[in-house]
Design brief:
It contains ten helices and twelve strands. By secondary structure, it is of the alpha+beta class. It has a five-stranded antiparallel β-sheet with strand order 10-9-8-11-12. It has a four-stranded antiparallel β-sheet with strand order 4-7-5-6, with no helix packed on it.
């Protein structure tokens, strides 16, 4: 008998609409694979969420939530308390990956290259914290929500206007070059994809607006560099303690002629997009793993910390 699966989707974060699409795609594929599937639109009331999940008596929860409350360890903690196995990473890895500052510290200590960066508190910025260009990003949002590049000559300063919810932001040196991403499934890197955008930066609009970005799979980089990107992604996955499927985003700086390209890890996504046209399913398909097989593997390898 197939496991009963409840797909968590929606939620209350800035990535709600993306999560609804991920959840719908996963539920459709799992249903076609023979699993009895129900869905729950997760709100921020933990008692109501627990009741909605319990009412479906699932054997496994497929976590299709993105952003805060679904990706940062909160829902993972609830499911641990309920004793229900769930897809993707556990509480500790989810919380660590979502906190960009903490994750950077872990990466740097492990020898994983990261961009130069500083944490800036609200009202503390007195001029530029780093030489321009630099990137300003919220510490605990995903999908490039709220990310700004401050370039030479820019008059709009997000550190002054502060369009962020948090009391602190991460400021990182802008790494020129190309955007790469690597899918990791279990302990295996599935491949390297390059993302290009006419917007010049892979921000929220580039990710989700029609025609906002183009994907090149496999990434047109030398095999040795692709192997290095895969190695860094697996190392980052392990350092954070991730399980299931994750996606690591990197910058690939090949802008200096005659110099070996350098790579830096930007972040690890423990809840990557899961529509059939999302990055991880696209990389998996190139590796010979179709979308139904991908979500089936995730369900069969679900686990619980409790």
């Amino acid at each position: 008998m197939s496991k009963r699966v409840t797909v968590l989707m929606g939620g209350a974060s800035a990535e709600r609409e993306v999560s609804l699409r991920s959840g719908a795609a996963a539920a459709k594929a799992l249903g076609a694979a023979g699993y009895p599937v129900g869905t729950v639109d997760a709100g921020r009331d933990p008692a109501a969420l627990a009741a909605a999940i319990a009412a479906q008596s699932p054997d496994v929860v497929f976590n299709a939530l993105h952003g805060r409350f679904g990706e940062d360890g909160c829902v993972q903690g609830l499911l641990n308390l309920m004793g229900i196995p769930y897809t993707h990473s556990g509480l500790l890895a989810s919380a660590a990956a979502m906190d960009k500052v903490f994750a950077r510290q872990l990466f740097a200590q492990a020898g994983i290259p990261v961009a130069a960066g500083v944490v800036v508190g609200k009202g503390e910025a007195k001029g530029d914290p780093l030489p321009r260009p630099y990137v300003v990003k919220p510490i605990n949002e995903g999908s490039s929500v709220g990310v700004h590049i401050v370039r030479p000559g820019d008059t709009r300063d997000p550190l002054a206007a502060w369009p962020f919810d948090g009391a602190e932001v991460l400021v990182e040196a802008f790494v020129p070059g190309r955007e790469l991403t690597v899918a990791v499934m279990g302990e295996r890197a599935l491949g390297v994809l390059e993302i290009t955008s006419d917007r010049g930066f892979y921000d929220y609009e580039a990710k989700y607006a029609p025609g906002g970005s183009r994907h090149v799979m496999p990434a047109p980089i030398p095999p040795s560099d692709a192997a290095e990107a895969c190695l860094l992604a697996v190392q980052a996955h392990r350092i954070l303690g991730c399980r299931g499927v994750s996606r690591t985003d990197l910058r690939y700086d090949d802008t200096v002629p005659g110099r070996k390209p350098r790579m830096v890890v930007l972040e690890v996504n423990t809840q990557p997009g899961m529509t059939e046209t999302s990055l991880v399913p696209e990389i998996a398909a190139h590796a010979g793993i179709g979308f139904p097989d991908l979500v089936r593997w995730m369900v069969e390898n679900a686990a619980c910390d409790g």
